[in-house]
User: Fold these one by one.
Assistant:
Number 1:
Amino acid sequence: MNTHLPDHFKCPISLEIMSDPVILSSGHTFDRSSIQRWLHDGHRTCPITKLPLPHHPSLIPNHALRSLIAAFSLPDSKTPPEACALISTLVSSSSTVSSKAQSLRLLRRFSARDSAFRRCISDSGVVSAVLACVDSNDSSLQESALSLLLTLSLDDDNKVGLVAEGAIHRLVPLLLLREAVPDCRAVAATVLTSLAVVEVNKATIGAYPNAIVALVSVLRDGKGVRERKEAATALYTICSFPENRRRAVKCGAVPVLLRNVGSGLERGVEEMESYDGCVQILVHVLRNGSCRGIQYALLALTSLCTNSEEMVMVVLEEGVLEICVGLMENDNEKVRRNTSNLIQVLRGNHHWIGL
């Protein structure tokens, strides 16, 4: 077996096929027993780079490489040979960025055609290596990795597995990165939408720190229509979980969505309307918010009350009418105009209002 397997399956120290590959802080992989002997002998440098190591170096299991070695070694392995070769390129530390990107694209192409192939890829342990590519500074490699994740997420079993592997941990920082390529942020939002199809993932995504904040920030600051649409769709999907609606409203999603009405982003507003505390939060903004916040709160309330008798009743019960009377004296012309529009909507639904 030692003679026909790729060289990067062999430990750089023992030159034997690794049974328990681990990654050193230098980024290189060694068999656990070999690197532990190296450290036990008093060495405090990487055997390959010769750079100094921490006093207590961490040994991180390389699950992708371990699974790949097993796939190559077992005669009854179900992983297709072409997949093994592509995964081998992906997990090898000696592979170039362009060769990794090409492997990701081919894995995606094969996965898109065959659900059985997708299962093999997921079972091979390569997901961790794909997720690592999402952190790349190379936009081509990053987008190829995201596209493969999206394809793998087509299967419901994979959706839960990808979240367990740490997909959200990779996607959220990318969405928050304003310097990121718009297409990459768009695909990242699409992957979140796909993962959120499974109910349990909705709760997990919503509870993840800054996940909803990230989607709202893309809606607000996105450079292109595509990334904003994908962010709106992701927000719409995860907000079918009630607790996420509360989080989204508190993150300022309603006024941001209203600013994008007419650009195909109306779906997100639909979920915001069904959150019980939405009006109360907007009324709080009317009473205590900044001038800009008041403008957006007025727009949001106008949208919520249009053609909705139930929402009008909630707004009236919260004392919005009295607040509007005071806002008609505001120095800001936009505030006065938005206030007037809201009053007209309220009057249109309740002709008995004496204004």
Number 2:
Amino acid sequence: MGANNGKQYGSEGKGSSSISSDVSSSTDHTPTQAQKNVATSEDSDLSMRTLSTPSPALICPPTLPGFQNGRGSSTSSSSITGETVAMVHSPPPTRLTHPLIRLASRPQKEQASIERLPDHSMVQIFSFLPTNQLCRCARVCRRWYNLAWDPRLWRTIRLTGETINVDRALKVLTRRLCQDTPNVCLMLETVAVSGCRRLTDRGLYTIAQCCPELRRLEVSGCYNISNEAVFDVVSLCPNLEHLDVSGCSKVTCISLTREASIKLSPLHGKQISIRYLDMTDCFVLEDEGLHTIAAHCTQLTHLYLRRCVRLTDEGLRYLMIYCTSIKELSVSDCRFVSDFGLREIAKLESRLRYLSIAHCGRVTDVGIRYVAKYCSKLRYLNARGCEGITDHGVEYLAKNCTKLKSLDIGKCPLVSDTGLECLALNCFNLKRLSLKSCESITGQGLQIVAANCFDLQLLNVQDCEVSVEALRFVKRHCKRCVIEHTNPAFF
């Protein structure tokens, strides 16, 4: 679409001029009868060929979704006269009155359907397009060019793809967006270039230099990013609140100082305003790096450290000293986190709503008791693979966190129907429950849960020894519940 549109924008009306030249050549000389016959047969063949591959300038797109798929007409039909259409296209049968086909009898020039839309509607449609498609639309015609570069559409840059030269793309886009305000792009607030492996520190430096109002940055999977680039962004973008560097294995620290060993106290006047930080799969992150992050990012409310395998309980202790407002925390697959780490996490008290400790094999009922005792407003707990959790831990959790909505205790072989019964009798708001590979669970425990938790929406009992009757009982009592199972007799 981009190439075709570029040609049409550069040579508007070229098709109509060639057709008009054919018309003028046929009127200069008086043709003989034989020539008329030949011309008639040629016109008939030309008409057949034209109708088999209709020009987008002659047939309007029937609906707006046609534009969204990138097939909208790019030239105005006003340059093609009724006589020319009549000569190129044979008149349709009398019974054919399709409103989308232009007839020679219509004297007025008409526009394509999408061209009739007002500017604000076009801008609304453009707002759903990714950045690369929006740039292609800017090449269609002059009106689309002006609409596509409306400042309201450039609060976000979203690029994806492993082959795209992201550094160059960001340089070109920011240069265009800085035309009205030289060297500064004040409208851009979000940059999402996840999965762009060719992104380097140079691209992030461009963003840091030109976009002081940046609030959200997503560079997950861009493994060429280093601490230096992150330092440039957080130093030059004081309003940054959302940072996703998951999968950036070279990132080991986020700070306002080039020396990672220098810490800032919470009372320091200059702090990073990040509230959401995702460092999933940052394998090199260690306790000292987490200490620096906590000291510089004291306003954190959402922190995800999945598969940061070098972290220990000491890193969590540093975190709780500085970041006391955390609502969501994930330390899944951090195999060195134990009950002592959960004791530190419990210091968040009622502020903690989401906690994931999946596959933390050193966690037992002791750590669960700490969390349940102090974090009474916990809504989500993922403890899958914590084989040290038993019915006692589930019981203590159920009695203290009565507003629990989602619980995953899959692959906890020591949890049985006793723990499920206590859970069902206390957590009536439970909506999601995963018991995958819980060997001690039977149909009796499921029936107790179904009889008390009517709002249950998802139940995972894969690889559990439960009967078909128990699954049917759950289905009858929990109408909206989706049951994930491995019992071939139940359907």
Number 3:
Amino acid sequence: MASSHFLCNSHHLYSSNSQINSFRNVSLSLSSSYRVRLSSSFGKKPQFQRTQLVTVMASGSKTDRKQVEIVYDPDERLNKLADEVDMDAGVSRLTLFSPCKINVFLRITSKREDGFHDLASLFHVISLGDKIKFSLSPSKLKDCLSTNVPGVPLDDTNLIIKALNLYREKTGSDKFFWIHLDKKVPTGAGLGGGSSNAATALWAANQFSGCLATEKELQEWSSEIGSDIPFFFSHGAAYCTGRGEIVQDLPPPISFDLPMVLIKPPQACSTAEVYKRLRLDQAISIDPLTLLEKISREGISQDVCVNDLESPAFEVLPSLKRLKQRIIAAGCGQYDAVFMSGSGSTIVGIGSPDPPEFVYDDEEYQDVFLSEASFITRAANQWYTEPFAMNASSSPADISHSV
């Protein structure tokens, strides 16, 4: 029995089995679990309700009967629609990895007249990330965003939609998209998950449009919608200053095989509230370039993983300070450094992928987010790839060209 996918529109059945078109007499039998409601005339659009399997009995003569199994796949339907949207497009679908980052150190150097703060930080991309699927949309009016988790905005307040709007504004592109965000990076974590999503969307839009912009232009434009977004257009390790938008690419200063564990309680820290409690006169005075030099020379240690936002974050969320202290105490030296990333509330343990036992045993921490991770970078003219996907011999990105 042959198996194929099909797509119905108002007048046609598209099937990989061309013999179906030559059958004169067709009868349908349905699997017991699913139902398909067809209009009485092919001039009307068939409506599908959870239809997964349709068996077609067809005959070219009274004595010659054949049976063909047709599988209806909603994802395949979307893919075929995307192919038909723009027959001249070089890319019709694209799936990309959207990694997050940690701040290996974070110094706040001054308060600016515009109300923001100047910082100096070693940003580094890590292997934890989301996946984002892009397909060309038949609509020339709007993007459509979906996600696998509740609470993520799906309108133009989402940084993905902001990034796509920015790209169209800067380039004049008329392409709109269906986007599905498979979210794994927790929000309110100090890991830059939303900023990474925006950078990934800009890179994707540029691929769909034949690379109308350079990566440098994408990086410069991205600062208009978020301070951390330009960093993701580095190669993965960068010394960032200003509000974070001044990005200096670095050779990877830290070994890729150095493991880490991320521990984030369900509570988030308000970035605005953390900065409100920041007292620059009480921050340490060590030169951030000294920290960068020591990391490049000697690697990670507790004394170089400085975060000026830790103290105000611990005031906002006292339980976060207790969590860090308990990790250090219970780790018994298994971690080279334990520190908070960004404005919180993720605590990072460098040197081991394993969380301390109390995280599993203590009821207070039953709802924490846990993930192991490692440092990664990207190659020139390529986007980031998920490390285990590469080990499994998967392609760096799932790119489907329109046929």
